[in-house]
Write a structure and sequence with these properties.
alpha+beta; 2 domains; N-terminal domain of MutM-like DNA repair proteins; single chain; Helicase, Ruva Protein, domain 3
C-alpha cells in the first residue's frame, strides 16, 4: 500500500514524466470494481479533465495529488498508478485511463480497495484529504522534535507505539508498512505502550521516524511496493513479508510475525524488547 515514501516518489516521477502534457481523453470505471471509490459520477471525469494540462503532482500522506488547472486527481491508498509510453501497452482492465497528447497514458487499477477522486479545487471536503494537506510530512523541517513531542496528548500514553504512530492520522502516510523498520531502528516493540518509553527512547523514536522515511524516499520507496513504472522500490526492508523467518541483520535472531490491530507486525525478539 502507498505510504509516504511511495507517494513522494510517484509524485516526483509524475513531475519528471507527464507535467506539461495535455489530457486528450479520460475513461473511468471501464472495469467496475466493488471497492473502487469515486468522487461523484466517474462518467463526468472525461468532461472535467479533457483538454486540461497536467501541472504539478504532490505526495500528501498516503495519497497522490495531480493538478490539472483547477482540477484535481487524487489517488488514495490502494489505487495503483502506472505510466505507459505506448497506449497499446495499456492493460485491458482498469478503473481510470488518462490518454495524453504524446500517445502515452496514465492507468490506475484497484486490487483490494482504493479511491480515485476527480474534482474541482475546493469541491472535496474530506477529513483525511484535508488533514494530509494540513499536517507536515516527516520529510520536512517543520516536522521537528517539538512537533513530535506535541503529538503526545491526553490518553496517548495508553496506546501501543503502533497505534500511536499509525492511527488517527497523527502522521498522515505513516502506516503499518513503514512502521516496521522505523521501530526496528528505534529498538522498540510495536506493542510497547507509549507511556513506558523513556525520554531517550522517545527521542530515538523521533530520529527513527525522520531518518527511516528519508532513506526509504531517497531510494524510491520500499522493495515491497511498486513505483510509477511498475518497478520495486530500492529500499530493502528489514521487517516485512519478504523477511519473516529470516535472521535479523543485527543479532541473527529469527524475525517474528504476528497479527495485531487488524494487520501484521514484524519484530526481532532480541533487538526489540516489549518491556
Amino acid at each position: 500500500m502507498i505510504e509516504i515514501p511511495e507517494s513522494t516518489t510517484i509524485a516526483r516521477q509524475l513531475n519528471d514524466t507527464v507535467r506539461g502534457r495535455t489530457i486528450r481523453s479520460v475513461t473511468a470505471n471501464a472495469s467496475p470494481h466493488k471497492f473502487a471509490f469515486y468522487h461523484g459520477d466517474p462518467v463526468d471525469y472525461s468532461t472535467l479533465l479533457g483538454h486540461q494540462v497536467i501541472g504539478d503532482s504532490f505526495g500528501i500522506g498516503a495519497m497522490i495529488e495531480i493538478t490539472a488547472g483547477e482540477r484535481r486527481i487524487v489517488l488514495g491508498d490502494g489505487a495503483n498508478l502506472r505510466y505507459y509510453t505506448d497506449q497499446n501497452q495499456v492493460p485491458p482492465k482498469h478503473q481510470l485511463l488518462v490518454d495524453l497528447d504524446d500517445g502515452s497514458a496514465l492507468v490506475c487499477s484497484v486490487q483490494m480497495y482504493g479511491a480515485i477522486l476527480v474534482f474541482m479545487d475546493g469541491d472535496y471536503d474530506n477529513k483525511y484529504y484535508r488533514v494530509a494537506h494540513e499536517k507536515p510530512l516527516p520529510l520536512t523541517d517543520t516536522f521537528d522534535s517539538a512537533y513530535f513531542y506535541a503529538l503526545r496528548t491526553t490518553g496517548t500514553d495508553k496506546l501501543s507505539v503502533k497505534a500511536f504512530l499509525a492511527t488517527e492520522q497523527r502522521i498522515p502516510g505513516l502506516g503499518n508498512g513503514v512502521l516496521q523498520d522505523i521501530l526496528f531502528y528505534a529498538g522498540i516493540h510495536p506493542k510497547r505502550k507509549i507511556g513506558t518509553l523513556s525520554e531517550e527512547e522517545y527521542a530515538r523514536l523521533f530520529q527513527a521516524v525522520k531518518e527511516t522515511l528519508s532513506e526509504m524516499t531517497r531510494l524510491g520507496g520500499r522493495d515491497t511496493e511498486k513505483d510509477l513504472f511498475g518497478n520495486a522500490g530500492g529500499y530493502t526492508t528489514i521487517l516485512s513479508k519478504n523477511t519473516v523467518g529470516k535472521p535479523c541483520p543485527v543479532c541473527g535472531s529469527e524475525i517474528k510475525k504476528a497479527a495485531y490491530m487488524g494487520g501484521a507486525i514484524y519484530w526481532c525478539s532480541v533487538c526489540q524488547l516489549i518491556t
